[in-house]
Amino acid sequence: MYAITIPEPGGPEALVWAEAPDPVPGDGEVLVEVVSSAVNRADVLQRQGFYNPPPGASPHPGLECAGRVLALGPDVTGWAVGDEVCALLAGGGYAEKVAVPAGQLLPVPKGVDLVEAAALPEVACTVWSNVFMISHLRPGETFLVHGGSSGIGTMAIQLAKAVGARVAVTAGSPEKLARCAELGADILIDYREQDFVEEVRENTAGAGADVILDLIGAKYLDRNVQALAVNGRLAIIGLQGGAKGELNLGALLTKRAAVTATSLRGRPLQEKAAIVAAVREHVWPLIEDGVVRPVVDRTLPMADAAEAHRVLESSGHVGKVLLAAPSAGA
User: Fold this and answer.
1) CB within 8 A of 289, min separation 6: which ones?
2) pLDDT digits over 179-225, tens only?
3) pTM (2 decimals)?
4) Measuring CA to CA, which residue among 19, 34, 152, 22 is closest to residue 84?
């Protein structure tokens, strides 16, 4: 098969479309013919040499894909050759084929194009696990998501609105905030011009946000705690603003608040399978009913992954950037 390889870490030009060994499905795995994958920040870090795949995972980047089942490994039930699926991966999405643990497969939701289905697994699993399974966002609560126009952000807005929460977002331009508003965001904060702590307080009569989903990390840590409501929950899923920050435990104690930090890629298979099962139960019906939809900025040929990485790093996109494998045109 062909896959995106990384002979040496570096800039986008380090991504090389080249021949690679075909994956072989092991016990409990399914071989998928990849039709499309999606670009995530973790792929950029892997390309730069800062985020190696977990032991046993594919060396190729790509944390999600959509495609068709080619073969079943031993001890796999519930799936058949030819099924159209999307999947959460530990790696290997930037390739023509990938082996996936069966517990990380999802059927393509009714009404979603197969190529666009690659925009769903990583964001749906990240948002559902952090905002609902861990932080327990409830109807009527205020939810703040940083980077509201990102792939994570666009999914988080829609899911939070679907459960009846009030949604605040930060983004870096009026155009991006307008797109967030179209998805249902109630409180729009331009982080280049406004202080999100003040804006959240002003729009909640001083109460603050009940749940915050943050991909910035250290740079926002203190201000996120300031923006939390009493009994608030801060879920950290990214470190774009650094890994080490100072946490005011006094403020946390006063607010009886909680800070959690998670990632998906390195979790045990059973944990990922449980998250995928929850997403299938709770998120897939919302997608099939048209309440939630994938937001795709653009789709590029997989061989042009370098250009896709440039788009992501420039932060000029809204939603997901997809990569179409040669099979997408078959």
Assistant:
1) none
2) 999 999 999 999 999 999 999 999 999 999 999 999 999 999 999 99
3) 0.97
4) 34
Please name the residues in contact with 76: beta carbons below 8 A apart, sequence gap of 6 or more.
25, 28, 29, 30, 102
Cα Rg for the chain, rounded, in angstroms?
Answer: 19
Look up residue 157 and give its two tokens.
């807005």
Structure confidence at residue 133 (pLDDT)? 98
Sign (positive or negative) of CA dihedral 272, 277, 278, 283: positive
Mean pLDDT estimate for the chain: 97
Other CB atoms within 10 Å distance of the CB of residue 79: 16
Q: Are strands 29-38 and 64-72 parallel, antiparallel or unpaired?
A: antiparallel
pLDDT at 7 over 70: yes
Cβ(70)–Cβ(81) under 8 Å?
yes
Q: Please tell me the distance from the alpha carbon of residue 159 to that of residue 165, in angstroms, as a whole number.
A: 9
DSSP string, 8-52: S--SGGG-EEEE-PPP---TTEEEEEEEEEE--HHHHHHHHTSSP
HSE, side-chain direction, 13 A CA sphere, residue 276: 26
